[in-house]
Every structure is written in structure tokens, then in C-alpha cells.
Amino acid sequence: EDSIGDRMAMLFPDGITQTLPMASFDVALGDYAYAQIIHNSADPAVASVDIYVNGALAVPGFDFRTATGFVPLPAGVELQLTITPAEADPSAGVTVPATLDADQTYYAIASGVLNPDNFSASPTMADIGFRLDLVADAQLSTAADSLSFKIMHGATDAPAVDLFVQGLPDPIVSGATFSAITDYITVPAPEIYTIDLFASGVNIYLASYEVDATNLGGGTAFITASGFINPTANQDGEGFAVLAVFADGTTALLESVTSSIE
């Protein structure tokens, strides 16, 4: 079985995907960049979306809390990336222009909500409108005895948060507000870690999550807060969870050890 980071999903113009060994990533394919698309918008109106690139359907039926592998996109030209509710007319979607650098790797994370007036405001007054964040220098692998990951605050109705790894004296994230994304954090693997989540500034405990890195040595991940702390005040969208996305497009919800969010 391939380990995480050993494979890459290639997306072709007709929408068909094919899994290729990571060795293929090192082959020059022309002026292309590579992006992993992550659907983290908890708005029920976009529970499933279609993604268009310059008006052509590229990813149909893309569901909340799923991700692609790293897929090739043309570099050096302005792309119009459109995200629309599944099977809706592209004109009903949100379009984001992007110009990518050749041979660069990106995360492309969809988050926020289409109509903020229909949802709880951010406790930090952050703009919770639908957005597509492009993060360059995405890593597909790391040292064999380590796990590297970025963390994003992707929950629109969550307060600013501090994250602690049990056993370490200082937070790995301090005062993160909606849409904030950390640099890479690297920890030894294989290990099992517990991350404690606190409301920033008031030291109110929110939850603990387990990160099992037993089989993740050499791998990378993008970890994001996901869903709503109060679903009933947010169109009955999905409840709060922590989503981990790996380089091959695999996703998993981190195990909640304890929680006081309710």
C-alpha cells in the first residue's frame, strides 16, 4: 500500500482523475503549478460544489470536507476559478482570479459562507464571506521520522483560539482568528499527540483532539477547524470538528478526546 505522500491525483480536462506515483511529480510537464483543493465551507448551500477553471468544469460534485490530490493547473496566466453549488449555472458561483507560478505547489482552501447575513457573525468580527485562499509552498513530504502540518482557523462562528500540544509549555498557535493559517509545524513521528484548544485571551477550555502520527512519518497534512460551534444558529450546518487533509487527498476528522464546546 502506498504511504501518504507517495501518490498524486492528476486531473485531466475531461474531469477524469488518475492516481500516479509521486515520482511523476518530478517530471517537467511544461508551465504548470500544482494545487490541492480543499472544501471547507460549511454553508449548507455549498455542501457539494462544482469547480470551473476558465469556464470549463474541472471538479464536479466536490463535497464538504473532501480534497483533491495535487492537480496540475496552467501557470503564468490568469485563471478564473469558479466555485458554484453542484449542478448550478456557473454564473451563480463565486469567481476568484489567480495567477500561479510554474512548478510551485499550493493549497487552495474554500471556506466561509455565501451570505454572511444568514449566519452567526464571527466573535472577532472577521469577514466570514465565502473565500478561496491560495497558500504557496505546500509540502508533499518531510523527513522520514517527522510529520509536518499547517493549521487553519476555518470555523466562522468560533472565537480566537490558542492551541497547545500536551507536554509542551508554549502554545503552537496563539490568538488565531477565522481564516488564519500557520507556518508548517514539524513534530517527531511516530507519536500520538493531544492538542488542547482554548479560547484565546480568556483561557476558556474548548476541546482536545488526538493526532495519531504512528503511521505518518515522512508525511504532511493541512489541519483546519471545520463546521459550526452552534449549528442551529447557522442554517443547521455541520457541527464543529477538526479536519486533517493529507497530500494524496485523503481526509480524516481528528478524534475528539474531550470537549466543552456544547
Protein architecture, described:
There is one protein chain. It is globular, with a radius of gyration of 18 Å. The chain is 0% helix and 48% strand. It has strands at residues 7-11, 17-21, 32-39, 48-53, 56-63, 67-74, 78-85, 94-99, 105-111, 131-136, 146-152, 161-165, 173-176, 185-188, 192-199, 204-212, 219-226, 241-246, 251-253, 255-259. The termini are far apart. The strands form five sheets. A five-stranded mixed beta sheet has the order 14-11-17-18-19, with no helix packed on it. It has a five-stranded antiparallel beta sheet with strand order 13-12-15-16-20, with no helix packed on it. It has 262 residues and is mostly beta strands.
- The total of helices stands at 0
Distance between the termini: 39 Å
Proportion of beta-strand residues: over 45%
State the share of residues found in helices, binned by percent: under 10%
Q: Could you list some keywords that capture this structure?
A:
disordered N terminus, mainly beta, 5-stranded mixed beta sheet
How are the SSEs placed, and which strands pair?
Elements: E1 7-11, E2 17-21, E3 32-39, E4 48-53, E5 56-63, E6 67-74, E7 78-85, E8 94-99, E9 105-111, E10 131-136, E11 146-152, E12 161-165, E13 173-176, E14 185-188, E15 192-199, E16 204-212, E17 219-226, E18 241-246, E19 251-253, E20 255-259
In short:
This protein has 262 residues and is mainly beta.
